[in-house]
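Quick one: structure tokens for this chain, please?
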Amino acid sequence: MDKVSFLQEKSTYHMKYPDQSDLSFYRWYTEQHPDEAIGWYHLGREYAERGEQEQALSALRRALHAKPGPYYNEAREAYQALLRERKQQEWRSKTRRLLATLLFLYFQFAFSPSPLTEPGPAAATTAPVSPAISKEQPHVEVIAVPAQLGADQLKDQVRQYVENRRPSLSQPYSVIVVPEVAGAPLFTPLLFYQPANVMGVLRYHPLNRTVISQTWFPRPGAYPQDSLLRPARTALGQEQQVLEHVLLLRNALYRFYQQKGSLPDSLSQLAGAYPGNYLPQVPAPPAGLGLKSYLYRPASFRPEAAWASLRDVLPLPGYPEPLVPLEPLQIRIAEATYTMRLMSGSQVVRSYPIGIGKDGLSPEGYFTILQKINHPRGHDNIYGTRGMVFESSGYAIHGTNHPESIGASLSLGCIRMLNAAVEELYSFVSLGTEVIATDAPVQTLAWSNPAPLILPARPAEETPQVVYRWLH
């Protein structure tokens, strides 16, 4: 429907129902035309003007999932503007809370009637006990540096990085230096990158600002026997695993909240049976953390800062929160280069090769994961071991029994992946995770994925009675 027809429809509605508001019309219109972006856009703007930010974001998100048409681009801009506004509000709220805490502490100390003393035995027995948090673990960062730097320049700039980037750390940590990765930021921690070729490694103590030890290699390489690099790689592997667990759990909790309006009572509810299988499993922490399960505190959730408050709901145990905050997971499909990236904000979590539809049949736009199926049935196992529906007309991301089709345009529109890759993606993403597909040229990123993370899928996620006819 074009803009003129939309306005005529609005005028007719108000003539028929003169007592109804614009909000009532927009609600009615989106019920009648759920695939038209124009209605969702105006509904989102109306909610935004009323200060109902979450409802506005939800409506604008629906506009982005609708078919392209009038106000599609406006909806995308409004959606991004609201996200930026929400982040600014979160920062202002954090600042106010910090100032309030500092004032409270000031008055406590300035006007305390007696010296502060250790609590007596009775006080110690009645004081509330905080839930156990894992002890601090060895922290490792991977940073990329410009390839053209000379040896002295490289050492100097990495030294500047460690002196300026981590003032909050109190324990020694390691930095693995890798050659520049095209498309990735320089001198910024690459949270989910496997450092195959290394230029150097150093151990730094932030309290006394000293380099404890360092090794610089004559040329980029693996150097598996280096006594400083080897333990750093091991520690990095565990830290990446914990980060991945926390990220996929926070993403599932966030998407659960978006769809249900509240958080689950326990993490186990995320691993429900189909069609409520947000995750195949709730991952268990690595043994080195000394935890039986990840700490879950739903009482710490704040709807006005839904994503940001998940840091308190599901804290990152044993490691510092990343300098660049984690963001909800998002699947980005670049059809022109046959690649898929799993993203957390600006951080690449995984990169995969894919197969797409022939003759431009793969859809473009904003979508969400609607269903997740373990071993989807189809003739000759054409859908591989996992399937994720992202568009109700029959488009899915799935595995394949024809691995040679990866990197080619052969399907009727579905996105094909190698079975091992789709099993890992299925482990990471939950129902409601966003999918953005485009055929616009996107810079190819030579990414090196960390160790695979696959959560075993369960029989409860299978649908043996259904034979799928996706656009394979």
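The mean pLDDT is 87.
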